[in-house]
Amino acid sequence: MSGGPYLIDLFSGAGGFSRGFRDSGFRVLLAIDNDESAAKTFSANFPGTSVLNEDIRDVSCDDVLYLAGRRTVDVVIGSPPCEPFTAANPRRLREPLDRLYSDPVGSLVLEYVRIVECAKPRIFVLENVPGILEGELKQALRTEFARAGYGTLFFNVLRAEEFGNPSRRTRVFVSNVRIDPPRRGPRRTVWDAIGDLPSPSRDPAIPNHDPPPSMSLRRLRRVARLRFGTALVKYRGYGGRLYPNLIRLDPRREAPTVLGSSRFVHPYEPRLLTVREQARLMSYPDDHVFLGGRDEQYNQVGESVPPALSSAIAMYLLELLPGTP
């Protein structure tokens, strides 16, 4: 961990956001997440980092400063839960401001602001779905960060597929600096990402590539008839909008957005993707291991910031942080 700016990761999950920063030269001092399996995954992949498996509402400013070694923090990143803000959630509250101030999960964004006010980083970056900007939410975020001492706010909308990620993912990165990394081309396809992987096995040389959950004979017959890009089932989100699931991937295109609840069907085989294959679609390198139960592993992958995108952000921010150790 010698050299490079100091970083704290809030709602750190499996470490996708931190992975891109660490690989770009940042030193990850502290990660906080309340999910035990995700915290174990983070610890396994970031052995030099203090990982606090706690509800952030129970973490004091003194806790943060102590665990960060009383160092001056250069960057605070974080991904508060997006469920209160995404239209894919059928139980999302009707009024946008209620999602931030009344929903106990949505109000975790305010905990992120609290820790930023405590750590006083030179730069902060909060990742979430674009729905966090609906209605009066954008102004509410301006007000909350201004109270924390950051009067300038940028809402940077970035598409992961423009930075080498082989699945589509549009997210907003709220920050006190403009974030506009150079785009990378050409875009990567599903087969670029997973085409070289062998059939699923318990070979430890490829972690998290165990055989995926099996499907019933009836469902296998239906899967066999799926065309590229079509879904076996659909579910209803907010306002009755239908969202596809169990999509047979088109090998020539980017994958749809990988979600914690989503599963994909292999382009050529009558089976679901393995955790490793879905991780490849999120640009995770194969040496990034996922711990916990299999569903927990799928969720950790789907709830991540893709490392390809976080690397692009990190490299861009390095140019704005002259004079760091």
In short:
This protein folds into two domains: 6-184 and 305-318, Vaccinia Virus protein VP39 (Rossmann fold, 3-Layer(aba) Sandwich); 190-302, DNA Methylase, subunit A, domain 2 (DNA Methylase, Chain A, domain 2). The chain has eleven helices and ten strands. It has helices at 16-23, 36-45, 61-67, 96-101, 108-119, 137-147, 190-194, 217-224, 275-281, 294-302, 307-318, and strands spanning 6-10, 27-32, 50-52, 75-78, 123-128, 154-159, 170-175, 231-236, 242-248, 264-265.
Which features characterize this protein?
alpha/beta; single chain; Rossmann fold; three-stranded mixed beta sheet; DNA Methylase, Chain A, domain 2; 325 residues; 10 strands; 2 domains
Write a structural description:
With 325 residues, the protein is an alpha/beta fold. It folds into two domains: 6-184 and 305-318, Vaccinia Virus protein VP39 (Rossmann fold); 190-302, DNA Methylase, Chain A, domain 2 (Alpha-Beta Complex), CATH 3.90.120. 29% of the residues lie in helices and 16% in strands. The chain contains eleven helices and ten strands. The protein has helices spanning 16-23, 36-45, 61-67, 96-101, 108-119, 137-147, 190-194, 217-224, 275-281, 294-302, 307-318; strands at 6-10, 27-32, 50-52, 75-78, 123-128, 154-159, 170-175, 231-236, 242-248, 264-265. A seven-stranded mixed β-sheet has the order 3-2-1-4-5-7-6, sandwiched between helices. Strands 8-9-10 form a three-stranded mixed β-sheet, with no helix packed on it. Strand 1 (6-10), helix 1 and strand 2 (27-32) form a beta-alpha-beta unit. The model has no long low-confidence stretch (mean pLDDT 94).
